Amino acid sequence: PAPNSLRRTVSGFAVQRYRSETAESFARHKTVFVSDFLRRAFLRSVPDADLSRACVIHNFIRYPFLRENAAQAGEVRAGEVLLVGRIDTGKGFGEFLGQVAGWLPPHARVAIIGDGPLRAQLEARHAGPQVRFLGWQPYGEVIRMSARSHVLVVPSVCEEACSTTVLEALALGKQCLALARGGTPELAAYQYYDGQLQLAETMPRLVERLVGMLGRAPVTVPLPDSFAMDVSRAIPQLLDLYAK
C-alpha cells in the first residue's frame, strides 16, 4: 500500500521489461484479435508493439445449426425476453433486473439462462411471474429458445471483446439489445436489417428501448444461406493468415 523508492523502481523495471518482451513476442508471431477493440486495448498497454503481422477476425459460430433451429413467424413468443450467460459480476444481470423492475409491460416475460455465483442472490430478489431463472441449459435448447424469443438482451457492463451471444442473435435474425461497450458495436456489421442490433449508452436507456421493442410485433426475417462469421468462412481466414 505504501511502496518505498526501491519497490517503485523494481516494479517500474519489471513492467518495462514485461512490455518490451511482449512487444517483441507480438512482432515475431502472427496474432489474431477477436475484435478491433481488443487490438486497440492491447496497443494502449504496449504502445510500441509491432502488430503488422496481426489481424482482426471476430468469433465464429455454427451457422448451419442455428439456421436449422430457426423459428417460423408463428413460433416466436411476443413479449419473451431472453438473457444468456454466466450470472456473475460484470455481466450486468443484476443491473438490468434492477432497472427493468416495474417497467415491463404486462405481457412481457424475462427468461434467464445460465448459472453463476450471483444467481441465488438475484433469483431471491427478482424471480417472480415475469422473471424466470432457468439455470444451465444444453446448447441446443439455448438456441431454440433464442430463436423463439421476441428480443435478446446482452446487458454486460464489462467490455466484452466479442460477444458470441450477440453474433448468434444476429445470425438467427433476432433483435438484440446491448450496451455500447467493448467490441460489441463492431458486430453491427453483421445485421440483416437496420436496427437489429440496438446499442445503448446506459442501462436506463437500454430498458427504455426494450420497452419500446416489446410494444411492437416481433421481427421475423428469412435467413440467408450463409453467415459471414460461420466457422466454414472464418477458418479459411485463419489459414490464409498463417499461410503467409
Largest sheet: 6 strands, parallel
Q: How would you state the average pLDDT, rounded?
A: 95
Uncertain runs are none
Q: Gyration radius, to the nearest Å?
A: 21 Å
Order of helices and strands: HEHEHEHEHEHEHEEHH
User: What is the number of strand segments?
Assistant: 8
Helix content: 40-55%
Widest β-sheet, arrangement of strands:
5-4-3-6-7-8
Assign an overall shape.
Answer: globular
Q: Give the N-to-C terminal Cα separation.
A: 48 Å
Tell me what the structure shows.
The protein has helices at residues 5-28, 36-45, 63-68, 93-100, 119-126, 139-147, 164-171, 203-214, 231-243, and strands at residues 31-33, 54-56, 80-84, 109-113, 131-135, 151-154, 175-179, 197-200. It has 244 residues and is an alpha/beta fold. A 6-stranded parallel β-sheet has the order 5-4-3-6-7-8, sandwiched between helices.
Layout of helices and strands:
Blueprint: H1 5-28, E1 31-33, H2 36-45, E2 54-56, H3 63-68, E3 80-84, H4 93-100, E4 109-113, H5 119-126, E5 131-135, H6 139-147, E6 151-154, H7 164-171, E7 175-179, E8 197-200, H8 203-214, H9 231-243
Parallel strand pairs: 1-2, 3-4, 3-6, 4-5, 6-7, 7-8
